[in-house]
Amino acid sequence: EVHLVESGGGLVQAGGSLRLSCTTFGATFDDYVIGWFRQAPGKEREGVSCISSRERFVGISDSVKGRFTISSDNTKNTVSLQMNSLAPGDRAVYYCAAAALSRFFYRVGDVRRRDDSSPTPCPTSKFASWGQGTQVTVSS
Q1: Could you state, in chain order, the average pLDDT of each consecutive group of 10 residues for the chain (140 residues)?
Q2: Could you give the CA distance from residue 88 to residue 43 in angstroms, rounded to a whole number?
Q3: Among the listed residues 137, 140, 139, 134, the one whose alpha carbon sits nearest the alpha carbon of residue 8
Q4: Contact 105, 115 (CB under 8 A)
Q5: Nearest-angstrom CA–CA distance, 113 and 108
Q6: Which of 39, 40, 53, 110 could serve as a FRET partner for 91 with CA atoms 20 to 30 Å apart?
Q7: Rg, the chain, Cα only
């Protein structure tokens, strides 16, 4: 079982930046893909970005590509999301979540493959453990 705690949310003006952090507890950090998701009022939760440092994999949504950057610090069991050029449309509760590596990666013979059958690189359905969320508000 893995527990996750988010921090770093807040209020910024459009064009500003925030850095979110997700710290994991109770599991081997590198055994998981860690992802960031967001949910705006009245909308479905969507994947933003996800990472596995062991598999050297980064997934990112087209909606934030070029503005957001995900990174992993194994010494702190922490995954961060640097958010730049924030816009009012980025306002949401941001969640981090963990998915078992086996939900993303498998091997056929000596070849490692990623399950990329989903239309998005960080499918919500693959993530079983979730943090409580942190609010990000962007004013115009």
Answers
A1: 95 98 91 97 96 95 97 95 98 97 92 90 96 97
A2: 15
A3: 134
A4: yes
A5: 7
A6: 53
A7: 15
Rounded to 10 degrees, the C-alpha dihedral 23/83/67/42 comes to 90
127 strand-pairing partners? none
Q: At residue 133, what are phi and psi to the nearest 5 degrees?
A: 100, 155
Which pLDDT score, from 0 to 100, does residue 105 have? 93
- pLDDT at residue 38, rounded to an integer: 98
20 and 7 Cβ atoms separated by less than 8 Å = yes
pLDDT of residue 94: 98
